[in-house]
Amino acid sequence: MRIAYFINQYPKVSHSFIRREILALERQGFNIQRIALRGWEGDLVDEEDLRERTKTRFVLMDGIRLFFYLIKTLVLRPLRLFSALRLAWKLGCKAERPLPYHLIYLVEACQAYWWMKSFGAQHVHAHFGSNSTEVVLLAHALGGPGYSFTVHGPEEFDKPQLLKLSEKIRYASFVVAISSYGRSQLFRWIAHDQWHKIRIVHCGIEQAFYDVLPIDMPDTGRLICVGRLCEQKGQLLLLEACRELNERGVSFELVLAGDGEMRAEIEQMITQYGLADHVNITGWISSDEVRERVLDARALVLPSFAEGLPVVIMEAMALRRPVISTYVAGIPELVIPGQNGWLVPAGAVTELADAMQELLATPTSELQNMGDAAYVRVRQRHDVDTEASKLAALFREHAG
Asked: Which residue segments constitute the domains of the chain, with CATH numbers given?
């Protein structure tokens, strides 16, 4: 089967789960066309991402080419283009972005339509319920294949009406939620007769994580937080908790693995709180180095304010490391307090510091047992080939 994938930006450091899904589908015999709006520039640290870049076609790479496909659509499919224009106008009314953006999405859809037609795509799948899904919806209105999309959150759950999420679901063949929580949030915004379209397919972890030989829990006070340095991941709150630990005289080390728009503010807070000897920021690192860094730590800490279901939690659990995180979105579906980690209320500094202190005081053998339990749970729920099989069945059911 020929399936097109449409993504806003690909490849991308934080979109490794999409790459894993595509590669797993290819292992199952699917022919995948990769289309992204952008992603041809920018630094990539992972060799697999660099390979994916060579396989991807980029819509916004050539403005003249975009104009050519618009004219081609106007000449060869005028009635379809007019119908898609009316739909773009409807999607642009009282939306997150003003109408001109939605007209641009229509131009992008013209190019995507002809690319998918040339490829012979029988179905197109998008990730995220934002502009990427609107483009494939408009390409469908132009006569393109049926479409589906994966909703991750939290952005889609923050502004479902502005994103016209219910409209996108109404036209879709099916919609993927990555957790039971995500499915429930979609149920809120659609009619009951549309509920059957929402299917759960978890993000998957590739076999390389599961194949790592068990490595003994390090007898150190090192913890790691992996993720983009941004407001929703809660790194500022984590530094507040670190200051409390330091004031209590607790010995610890925290590695912040990642980069992002809040790095300068985080560095300033590290200096202000006198945590330079305790906290280290790595910047963006490759998947292999993330794996090594997690194995060098006693646990992953991710005090998120808003999430879907973080892939990094799955990765840490696959490496037999317990997790400290928050009662947010789909996280409690994976992290079970007392069995494979700790959960604290989001935004609670003292409770987070208490959990970190309790973890650091827990005997290594007990932590190792928790890590082993984490491995079993994530293996049962997040094997990439198993989850890709679920998606493959949906493609076969709905593809034209």
From this structure: 2-204+383-398 (3.40.50.2000), 208-381 (3.40.50.2000)
